[in-house]
Amino acid sequence: MPEKSVSRVKEDRSFEPSDHFREHARIASAAAYRAMHRESLEQPDEFWRENSQDLVWRTPWTKFSEWKPASDDGKSGAEAKFFLGGTLNVTETCLDRHLTTSARTRAAIVWEGETGETRTLTYFEVHRDVVRLAASLLDMGIKAGDRVGIYMGMVPETAVAMLACARIGATHSVVFGGFSADALRDRMNDCGARVLLTQDGAYRRGSVVPLKNMADAALESTETIEKVVVLRRMGKELAPIAMKDGRDVYWDELSPSAESVARAKAPEAFDAEHPLFILYTSGSTGKPKGVLHTTGGYLATANLSTKLIFDIRESDLYWCTADVGWVTGHSYIVYGPLSVGASVMMYEGAPNQPDPGRFWRIIERHGVSILYTAPTAIRAFIRWGDDHVTKADLSSLRLLGSVGEPINPEAWLWYHKVVGGGRCPIVDTWWQTETGGVMLTTLPGAVTAKPGSTGLPFFGVEIAVLRDDGTPAPANESGKLVINRPWPSMARTLWKDSERYVSAYWSQNPGVYTTGDGARIDEGGYVWVTGRIDDVLNVSGHRIGTAEIESALVSHPAVAEAAAVGKPDDLKGQALVVFVTLKGDKTASKEMKDALTQHIDREIGKFARPDQIRFTDALPKTRSGKIMRRLLREVASGNTDAKGDTSTLEDLSVLAKLRDQKDEG
Ligand code: PRX
Predict the structure, then answer these.
(1) How confident is the model at residue 1 (pLDDT cuts 50, 70, 90)?
(2) Which of 279, 311, 331 is the last residue of a domain?
(3) Can you give 244-287 as a three-state secondary structure string?
(4) Domain membership of residue 634 as a residue range
(5) In this structure, are residues 614 and 661 in contact, taking their beta carbons and an 8 Å threshold?
(6) β-strands 493-494, 527-532: how paired?
(7) pLDDT digits (tens, 9 = 90+) for 561-587
(8) Structural domain includes residue 533
């Protein structure tokens, strides 16, 4: 098992749902949760028949699921289908169905820019804008199944862009605006996007992120992108850009044909298994994985989980602080909340811009009632001091959520007391890009929360913790967290790499999905996730593959070899430490560190910058040449007396040298 990601005090207290919350909750007792969970596993057809009614099905589905397990050689199979026979258009559930209710004039998106301006878009307005953009994409020749890239910041148009793609059956691939031009290029080339939607620039921590200029750099080496649509967020003075004739068009100058508008107004329905989006995430190799999600199962889960976990009501203003470029933004800013007709708060910028009181002023200003954020942010707020929080009137809050990494009990308790005033339930939610929606949580109003535990399985989810030999671990013993059966919102494959999909997730233990996380289950069935046990790091809630960092580093002409590992960090959960061996004629220096940092900025993006770069003459390796990461992790953690068996080290002096070396970080 990995080292704990952040310090954890023992916390035995548990928190019952308040009577007030319970009175109104949709699922109001642990017994009700258990009965419903049992039904979801034993009679999935009935369960989902009842719980997928919010979705607008053009053709009702006839069969809940079909599953072909992985083949014995782990190279094929693992093919899942859900809601067979059903057809739908995702945007009819997220938009059209609200146009005939009071939601038509309700705020769908309440937006605040980093510079303080605000905009509100009603469901009517989002629908109008989606139709217009969808029609323009049709005019550009985009057909169902074509890929469209989205490289944008946190503006309402990013949600509009995603929905416009879904409207016409195009598969969107959102690339987080913090990724570099090179990372964007690789993703666009991998998925073969025909159109890229971007914006001139976005505000982040007081400066302008020049998205269009970065997109231009990427587009110098993309083969498939024919058109670029550019949203004017900043204007020419703030973000000077060049528009390429015949390729680039401004968003506000799109003038779709009447014929396409008519088609976009009365959109086609797609098979429940029609691809909805590809989202790239990190795995154990240098190449990011293009996680593919489809339509019916993804939306059914996004819808049900949003409704039940966040307990959203018409009177709520719900705020998920994730970036729309990650899966949390897909499922819990766009598809889930809009499918339930929620009013969604969206904020463009950084939590401490211009000062650490920003989030709390947003809550006060707009009356946010549900806040869903990440432990890293919570720990940063703790560090910045309670005053920033308590200065604001947070009495509108009634529910809090956490996602992205294990929440340490101290952070949980602070969140509960200082932000939630002791009255708001906290829903911790464990899930992954690949799972599409929340898999483990504490349902508010129904079950007791235990600080530090991600709670109990969501409906349709059956999990286990396995020992290395594949047998179930007894209560409280840590092991590998697996999911025992396919579920509707699971990734269907990895784009153009189904073999990797089968081998990464479905072939380590027969019949079960390997999450890559370690966990234990306590005697009450509560799951305690300890963190990743594969070569993936979680730095400030950002998923970073060590192999990606390493391959980026070795692509620098001065680097001979590199190894990236995580070390526990009180703020970030894990910090990224890289060990670098330079080529013979190159010297370790401060300038070299800066050059390597800039190289990572260019290859991946600033968010993947190593916290420490350590130079070494050689890396510790086994006789077969494998880098001994366990030892490097211990060295990185400042554990000078490295534990464990070192007899397989090829050169013990290498390790000794590393251990003795003063960190120049
Ligand atoms: O290690 C787990 C951690 O984040 C990983 C998934 O990262 P990503 O695909 O980027 O999705 C993040 C948002 C869903 C998981 O394998 N993780 C996510 N949520 C939690 C968590 N670890 C502990 N507790 C959580 N609530």
Answers:
(1) very low
(2) 279
(3) CCCCEEEHHHCCCCHHHHHHHHCCCCEECCCEEEEEEECCCCCC
(4) 538-660
(5) yes
(6) unpaired
(7) 999 999 999 999 999 999 999 998 999
(8) no
The reply to whether 129 falls in a domain is yes
Instruction: Show which of 279, 300, 316 is a domain's final residue.
Output: 279
Question: Distance from the CA of 432 to the center of ligand 1, in angstroms?
Answer: 5
Beta-carbon contacts of 656 under 8 Å, excluding residues fewer than 6 positions away, are none
pTM check: above 0.90: yes
Closest CA to 369 of 5, 21, 9, 57: 21
**Does residue 429 line the site of ligand 1, with CB under 6 A?**
yes
CA of 542 to the centre of ligand 1 (A): 9
From ligand 1's centre to the CA of 531, what distance in Å?
A: 8
Contact (Cβ atoms closer than 8 angstroms) between residue 420 and residue 401: no
In-domain check, residue 326:
no
Distance (angstroms) between ligand 1 centre and the Cα of 406 equals 8
How does strand 207-209 pair with strand 343-347?
unpaired
Per-residue pLDDT tens digits for 368-415: 999 999 999 999 999 999 999 999 999 999 999 999 999 999 999 999
Residue 624's identity, in one-letter code, is S
Q: Is the CB of 328 under 6 A from ligand 1?
A: yes
Write the DSSP symbol of residue 322: S
CATH number of the domain where residue 574 is located: 3.30.300.30
Say if ligand 1 is within 6 A of residue 348 CB. Answer: no
The closest-lying atom of ligand 1 relative to the alpha carbon of residue 438 is: 14
Helices (DSSP H) in 510-581: which residue ranges?
546-554
Q: Kindly state if the Cβ of 538 falls inside 6 Å of ligand 1.
A: yes
Report DSSP state, residue 52.
T
Q: Is residue 479 part of a domain?
A: no
**Could you give the CA distance from residue 211 to residue 623 in angstroms, rounded to a whole number?**
46
Render pLDDT for 72-87 as a digit per residue (tens, 0 to 9): 998 999 999 999 999 9
Strand ranges for 442-589 from DSSP E = 456-457, 463-466, 479-483, 493-494, 513-521, 527-532, 536-539, 542-545, 559-569, 573-582
Euclidean distance between CA atoms 179 and 66, whole angstroms: 37
Beta-bridge partners for 147: 171
Q: Give the residue whose CA is nearest to atom 11 of ligand 1.
A: 432
Residue type, 649: L
How many domains does the chain contain in total? 2
- Residue 351 CB–ligand 1 contact under 6 Å: no
Ligand 1 mutation pick, 3, 333, 432, max ligand atoms within 8 A of CB: 432
Residue 580 in tokens = 């670098």
Distance CA 149, CA 161 (A): 9
**Does the beta carbon of 544 sit less than 6 angstroms from any atom of ligand 1?**
no
User: What is the DSSP secondary structure assignment for residue 458, as one 8-state letter?
Assistant: P
Q: What is the CATH number of the domain that holds 206?
A: 3.40.50.12780
Select from 176, 415, 431, 458 the residue to mutate for testing ligand 1; criterion: most ligand atoms less than 8 Å from CB: 431
Tokens describing residue 628:
């001994």
Closest Cα to atom 23 of ligand 1: 406
- Taking Cα atoms as reference points, which of 402, 392, 343 lies closest to residue 365? 392
Which atom of ligand 1 is least distant from the CA of 543? 10
Residue minimizing CA distance to atom 6 of ligand 1: 432
